[in-house]
Amino acid sequence: MARPSKPKLSTTAIAEAALNLVDAHGEFTLPQLAKALSVSASSLYNHVAGRDEIIELMRGRAMSEIRLPDLRSIAWQEAVRDIATEYWTSYSQHPRLIPLLTSHTVRDITTLRVYDALAEAFALAGFGPKRRLQAITIVDSFVLGSALDAAAPALVWEPNAESSRYFKEALDADLSDSGRPRATFELGLSMLLAAFGQQAPARANDAEDC
Amino acid sequence: MARPSKPKLSTTAIAEAALNLVDAHGEFTLPQLAKALSVSASSLYNHVAGRDEIIELMRGRAMSEIRLPDLRSIAWQEAVRDIATEYWTSYSQHPRLIPLLTSHTVRDITTLRVYDALAEAFALAGFGPKRRLQAITIVDSFVLGSALDAAAPALVWEPNAESSRYFKEALDADLSDSGRPRATFELGLSMLLAAFGQQAPARANDAEDC
What is the least distance, in Å, from the CA of A186 to any CA of chain B? Predict the structure, then answer.
């Protein structure tokens, strides 16, 4: 019998194996990655320059399912909502990847296209460059924090005997709702979009920012 | 000469050593922790029941610098702003701890007091239990995402030849501003507080939530 042929090493296979390690352990090392792929570390270096490139490959893989809206056919608020929701969905699946990604400069092309689209949506809203960067960052932070919340255990907080009734009442209101993270993300996003709407087009006293 | 006496093992020392490991590697194991403290794993078990308890100890340590406002002397918006800012400051120093914490039920007393205070502030705003929990979660998510942003490299995004001018203009506006993360966090927090202000007290059509 012929031996099954070994899957060919590729950047896709490397990204997927690294993502599996990070999902499980919060981190990866090149020796662990080589072992998971049953190759030598030097084989890895035929495909990637090093750790930073692997992080960008994981970023691209995590973002690969994102569908960007057609900015010419919908209002900018809907565009931002669509992009942020796709982004949240992707990162909710890989919460332990998030701090690795946020600690590295974004160079992955797929991911940069997401930010291109966000920047264009906020430009359509009349936001000048500085406000645009602030708006992108605020959406980014809220999406990433909410993606971590989506990966939280069903019991997020366990109050104790000293906890206030204000907090206990709030916890009792909603503990068993499996749709909680998404509904809360959507509510917060709507609040931010309404606030952006009040700022757009940029007011006179922000003119120096534009 | 007498040998220097070995520092006594304590939950504080365990929390600090675990936090150092997580800051450096994004994770800790009990064998690594025992090695870092120059003790046996069984010595650790004389002080902590296991990994979950150590995570709660790290949470308490990261939150130990937080000063809570006197809710009777300031407006609820200022209370939420103060709590969220203290919380952001603490977590900005330990970005890699964040996904470990968000994936575990909060039981640490110091941390629960922070949520008690947030719950009380939103109760003072007239938010019923369900809205209160949503508001707490939205603030929590924005703080944690912004704390990750504060730990980002100075160059967050590196655009390429295909990047849109909307995005490049935005990046050019603000790249070298070391105060960017804090200013952006404060702007987003103000936007959320204004939106919460518009919701408080809860409107008639939200009555079923309260």
Answer: 10
pLDDT in tens, B17-30: 999 999 998 889 99
Q: Could you tell me which residues are beta bridge partners of residue B106?
A: A157
**Distance (Å) from the alpha carbon of A8 to chain B's nearest alpha carbon:** 29
Closest Cα in chain A, distance from residue B196 (Å): 8
Query: What would the pLDDT profile of B139-185 be if each residue is shown by its tens digit?
Result: 999 999 999 998 888 889 999 999 999 999 999 887 556 788 999 99
In this predicted complex, what is the ipTM? 0.89
Domain with CATH 1.10.357.10 in chain A: 66-209
Residue to test with chain B: of A115, A177, A186, A189, most B Cβ within 10 A: A115
Give the fold, CATH level 3, of A66-209. Tetracycline Repressor; domain 2 (1.10.357)
CATH class of this structure's domain B11-61: mainly alpha
Which of B25, B151, B191 lies closest to A103 in CB terms? B151
